[in-house]
Amino acid sequence: MGRHREFDVEKALDAALCVFWRKGYEGASYADLTEAAGVERPALYSAFGNKEALFRKVLARYYERYVDYVPAALQLPTAREVAAHLLQGAIDLTTRFPDHTGCLGIQGVLAGSDEAEPVRQALIEARVEAEAQLRERFERAKAEGDLPETARPDTLAAFLMAVLHGMAVQAKAGFSRETLEAVAEQALATWPAGKGEGDLRVRPQP
Amino acid sequence: MGRHREFDVEKALDAALCVFWRKGYEGASYADLTEAAGVERPALYSAFGNKEALFRKVLARYYERYVDYVPAALQLPTAREVAAHLLQGAIDLTTRFPDHTGCLGIQGVLAGSDEAEPVRQALIEARVEAEAQLRERFERAKAEGDLPETARPDTLAAFLMAVLHGMAVQAKAGFSRETLEAVAEQALATWPAGKGEGDLRVRPQP
DNA sequence: CCTTTTTCATAATGACCGTTATTAAAGCCC
DNA sequence: GGGCTTTAATAACGGTCATTATGAAAAAGG
After folding, report:
1. Which residue in B26, B159, B175 is closest to A26 by CB distance?
2. Predicted local confidence at residue A23, as pLDDT
3. Residue B96 and residue B106: Cα distance in Å, rounded?
4. The CATH number of domain B66-189, selected from 1.10.287.690, 3.40.50.10310, 1.10.4160.10, 1.10.357.10
């Protein structure tokens, strides 16, 4: 029983996602959030809890709906394809929307006040977990022979994450998709070749 | 004539530098700044102007005193040495101080409120200028033959900057110096060889 | 229809933000 | 040493922050 909720929770979350993406966790105020969502303050609190809880819900949504290329990439057959797909996916994500470029997981809280420390740690943990998945995938690739015996899966994972993070910083600075694709290609040029892999380009032509 | 200033302006700037480095521009409050500097609020205002002016002074100091390895690197004889020195310098800078890791130029304002937009743009411009200097250096290297004719100086500059930014993000997340050195080595593994350059390691052993 | 329950909107909360009067203290010139 | 200038310290400024009390509006049950 009781009154029905009038606003669309999904749309409100999407609006909050955009605001956090653009301004980061601490840079986004409730004035921004309520204006974007078209919903009054108490409605956001009753629906999502406080600001940190709202951000965590938004972050989960972000990973589900925008960073879904990561699990997809991890299932590709070779380590090189995994890396190439991750790079291309990150470029798409960080440059697709002109009004909120970059990556929420990076610019959410890179540095901030003590009050934002839990959120900052949450973002770090998410990145660490992603890197661990990547390392495990490359260990498998090494076992399967599509990475050479001399390859270091942990280093490759850390390197790839560094390039991804750096491209996210550049995307937030307004870099073009073309520039980022050149960066990705250069990153892949370093990629150790497995058995019978000679073509080192991002998207091999037939 | 008039009363002499009692606090050390240089030390106050150093203190503010540390605070901004740790918490970013908007994350640092005047309560933090005055406590770190041991100086009351009005003294900071009369000596440096408002928060943005203080940050810009701090940023200039940061480049002078901490990022001085960049102009030094640009004068090295080969493009590869330039890249290697930049990578090593960034690793040193971003991991040397355990209480303020990462890079002020990155985590100062990556994303923030509208009020921080001018500072954000200033940081972007500084990075763009650094990348332009790097590109020019690599163009010279190409002309001098220590980069091959197929090399793209703009791409190499953007790639190197991406790796540097990514390492700064990782350093702020607490990554160890050893990990970052492995990342740097992997980044250099792709480096296009000039005439008679075969050794692609970061620090060649005798 | 009336009560109950939930949501809505208005507006207020205390705390902290960056910034600045205001007043007292300290040093130089005449 | 008095007048003048600059700095120091206290305390306040208006504004915005995240958060919430309050009461009206709306829907369901009995």
Report:
1. B26
2. 98
3. 16
4. 1.10.357.10
